[in-house]
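Dissemination and training. As part of the outreach component of the grant, students in the summer workshop were shown how a complex can be specified as a set of sequence lines and then modelled as a single object. The example used during the hands-on session is reproduced here so that future cohorts can follow it. Participants entered these lines:
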Amino acid sequence: MRIPSFFTKPKFLKTITHIGALLPLAWMVQNYFTDNLTVNPIQELTFRTGRYALILLILSLAITPLNTLFGWRKLIPLRRLFGLYAFLYATLHFLIFVGLDYGFDWALLQEAIFEKRYALVGFSAFLILTALALTSNRSAMKRLGKRWKKLHRLSYLAGGLVIVHFVWLVKADLTRPLIFGAVMAFFLSFRLRPLRHWAVTIREKIRRPRALQPGETQP
Amino acid sequence: MKKIRSSEITPEQIYLSRRRFMVGVGALAASAIVAGCGIQPKSTTAAIAPTATSLPPADPTAGAAIAAATSASPTAIPPTATPSAPFASAATDELGGKLTPFDSVVNYNNFYEFTTKKEKVAELAQNWQTEPWKVEVGGLVRNPKTYDIDDLRQKFTQQERIYRLRCVEAWSMVIPWMGFPLAELLKDVEPTADAKYVRFEAIYDPDNLPGQSSPWYQWPYIEGLRLDEAMNDLTILATGLYGKNLLPQSGAPVRLVVPWKYGFKSIKSIVKIDLVDTMPVSLWMAAAPDEYGFYANVNPEVDHPRWSQKSERRIGKLGRQKTLMFNGYEEEVAGLYSGMDLRANF
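and obtained this result:
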């Protein structure tokens, strides 16, 4: 199946990503002005920003495995974009918790963030995302050199931490955090060398019989 | 132990007559305006006159007498009638906390029998039939009985109780309940000397309650109280709120309300009440024994293992407020737990 080249142009893919990532924010603003955030709007906003941050983080972490599995190289430039949008929603999530919810009450916050494990893991994940967002530009990549890659591998840890954060929040019904966790684990597993090699070999085997298309180079 | 001030308890007839009085005042004002316009007022003034004079005194017994007297008048509302508009006798609780608006109370519910999504319960519950309904009261009692819901509404004088409701999830509301002390029902069935606890069981109806298909919980919902907690005057069986019969999403037609304990203790849609001699195991104790104990008293000093209980978000208000010991009912109930380690007995 050939996808028309227009849809795989980096510019198109990036535009779609920008729109898709900003829609939930627009939706929340619309809901705010039409009074559609339940009677507990702070909690609703906290939950929603957290959910969007998690979904975007999973998408960001899914790009490389999708390339491994299906050879979708053209998605690679979206990885940083998804990561930065995940950081945007995580920041909103954190600010709502600290500002709107706790009104910057330091005494309450200290107890809420540093003495409660769910908040502590969430906060740790946020710190990681902050570090990654700050070093997501070309000059930071140059400056950090080899260490950049090492640093950005912390995104896997952040992914795990937010799942734990979610699991520790629900009262007993673990269905939703486990679904998110399974998707996250599925993609992360293809970063393990044996699985990655296996996936690439299978893909090559499927590909080989097909003749090269004009303009296509040998992988 | 401090008794609830009589000013905080309003028998149903009294507030209904207050309602009629206010309607009367409105009609008078309207007819005065009409008169001012030079139009002859019709018989309205005469028709509302008897109710307009029935402003009830604070004393409940006198109020009942007046209610009895006015019930003979053609404008009287029968005691079981559900007034169409939400009504409460006061705008705040005794600490000055504003009542949570009716719409918020009936559109944000933790009722896992339907769904775990609080804002979706009302919609899912709207067609759930809760009448006819029977409540079987038995176990260690001399006089076991099965009450029809109408028996409960008529046999026991319905009072208004404005209580704070503190959810274990750290949000809270102020709700004007209608109901009667559980103690009255218990006296009616006469617990034996062996009875130590009260065990409550909610409806099990998986065909109509989609949440009861969830494998994460052991249905039906079970709750329990120590007998002295159950006999405390603050503990009520609620049949209504804001002057209306309970809507399905609030636990219709009859539910427990224990205002000094976390909301999950106030079991909804009760079908069975048993007096027993051993501590009942509640649904939440079974689901997560290290997180939800039998007592579940509101206590800012004893956190949920995973989150803080020091503060709460009052629905309708921005920000947080400090959670009060026993949800602000310390004077009334602290005596029940003297000498007990509340951290161990969470």
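Chain B has ten helices and 13 strands. Students were then asked to discuss how this feature might be tested experimentally.
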